[in-house]
Amino acid sequence: MFSFATTLLVGAIVANGLILHPGYDQVATDQYNLLKFMIGAGPFVEHSGFGIPLDTPPHCEIEQAQLFMRHGERFPTKSSGKQYKKFYDRLKKANITDYKGPLAFIEDLEYFVPDSDNYDLETTRGLYSGLLNAFKFGTYLRERYDSLVDTSSVLPIFAASEDRVVDTARSFGRGFFGPDYATSCSIQVVNETDTSKGANALTTKDNCPTYNSSFYDYSFGDEIFQREADRLNELSPGFNITADDIITMGTYCAYETNVKGHSSFCDALSREAFIALQYNNDVTKFYQFGPGYNMSAVAGGVYANATAKLLQEDGKLWFSFSHDNDLLNYITALGLITDTELGTEDVDFHRSFKTSELVPQGARLIIEKLNCSDTSFVRTILNDKVYPVPGCSSGPGYSCPLEDYLDIITPEVDYASACELPDDAPKEISFYWDWKPTFENN
Ligand SMILES: *[C@@H]1O[C@H](CO)[C@@H](O)[C@H](O)[C@H]1NC(C)=O
Ligand SMILES: *[C@@H]1O[C@H](CO)[C@@H](O)[C@H](O)[C@H]1NC(C)=O
Ligand SMILES: *[C@@H]1O[C@H](CO)[C@@H](O)[C@H](O)[C@H]1NC(C)=O
Ligand SMILES: *[C@@H]1O[C@H](CO)[C@@H](O)[C@H](O)[C@H]1NC(C)=O
Ligand SMILES: *[C@@H]1O[C@H](CO)[C@@H](O)[C@H](O)[C@H]1NC(C)=O
Ligand SMILES: *[C@@H]1O[C@H](CO)[C@@H](O)[C@H](O)[C@H]1NC(C)=O
Ligand SMILES: *[C@@H]1O[C@H](CO)[C@@H](O)[C@H](O)[C@H]1NC(C)=O
């Protein structure tokens, strides 16, 4: 007879000495997961990781955790929704006598956003419900960090003020605190439209007058998108698909998947097109919010600086919610990306900067402070996988010694001066320290 214990021990299912199934997977399927090609617009997907167990390393205990999270799966924004509806209407109006090929499904296609009130908000039902995923993640972190919770005091959860971010923070809180939600946590809404808040925000790039996300204008894939359009027009004639339509279909696929759990546009597009769509987005974002633009680490440096300060204090749990591009700024400031440039001639298959790996909907970065035999180390966990700090992984479980970590993440450039902030604007984050318990936002 075989048992679960035997399975674990020998890494294979063994019955009476006969090996029934290999204990090690010989197929590498992760590379084909379409969620890795939805440019960060599609449902959450874990980072591919490096094989490092999530378990706390032996002789270590977690002393502090800082979470910085993007809101969960959502509907398209109003402006991109308008574009999808226009595209949908055009396809529906085409005079097609014989629906065939990859786009045959358009004959029966219904528009995926039921009500214009849904735009900009989280998805609330179905397979990829953004609010459910945030709730589940809250329950998971409660399990992991239960020993850090002081049930006699109120814990803040910081959220940038857009509805979908606050809704995500609340759902996370309900998962983390369970029945104690109403009294144990306090949702602290951090205004994201009041630029006079300067550095005291979770959307610092927006409060930085010199941050110009159009400073570079890089893209990729025109020829490949045209080739894909030609392919679809040949197999499904009559729609006059253009190269630009391919880009629209790529994100239509992602958002329709968030809402309905599936999209026929995802099936219609070739893998060749998806690889180019992903790379096109990576190149653009790399030079807008990643290491390709020198203001990224300045805007993200504000959070990195606060992270460093919190790591040297006694607070145990810090939860912050914001947007993908702010998370990219932060990841950049923390030195987690090793790419220094991305070319636009060919796909750089060997890059680490892939937006679907870094900032899918519901993306989360956790910084854990470990105490291992009285020495402090830091581990970063990106999208549920240990993601070692490049150039600093000598500690237990490939963690980084705290002192070295502080050197790595301390910003080189001052936000206030690089952004040319007015004198009266806050020059660093203070909300982590001067928040007051209130329950009106819960
Ligand atoms: C497609 O292009 C052809 C030729 O330019 C034109 O006659 C037809 O109206 C177009 N159809 C659509 C759906 O745009
Ligand atoms: C639709 O296409 C058919 C066949 O090509 C043609 O006979 C018909 O006139 C077209 N109808 C419109 C409204 O363009
Ligand atoms: C943010 O600040 C702006 C400008 O002061 C104000 O109009 C807006 O109501 C504030 N938003 C929230 C959510 O408090
Ligand atoms: C941002 O940079 C682009 C490219 O250099 C420039 O055309 C544009 O005027 C800049 N925008 C602002 C607000 O400075
Ligand atoms: C960013 O690079 C530009 C040149 O492209 C330079 O003028 C600017 O001072 C740099 N800013 C920072 C914060 O390094
Ligand atoms: C690390 O943990 C040990 C054992 O629990 C404790 O005595 C020590 O004070 C901790 N060290 C730090 C730096 O927190
Ligand atoms: C980092 O924070 C410290 C205070 O903790 C502040 O003095 C320093 O100016 C900040 N550095 C940057 C680059 O923001």
From TrEMBL:
Signal sequence, renumbered to the chain: 1-17
Active site residues according to the UniProt entry: H71, D324
Record carries keyword RNA-binding: no
Cross-referenced InterPro entries: Acid_Pase_AS, His_Pase_clade-2, His_PPase_superfam, Histidine_acid_Pase_euk
Keyword set includes DNA-binding: no
Highest taxon in the source lineage: Eukaryota
GO-annotated molecular function: acid phosphatase activity
PANTHER family, sorted: ACID PHOSPHATASE PHO11-RELATED (PTHR20963:SF18), MULTIPLE INOSITOL POLYPHOSPHATE PHOSPHATASE-RELATED (PTHR20963)
Protein name: Acid phosphatase
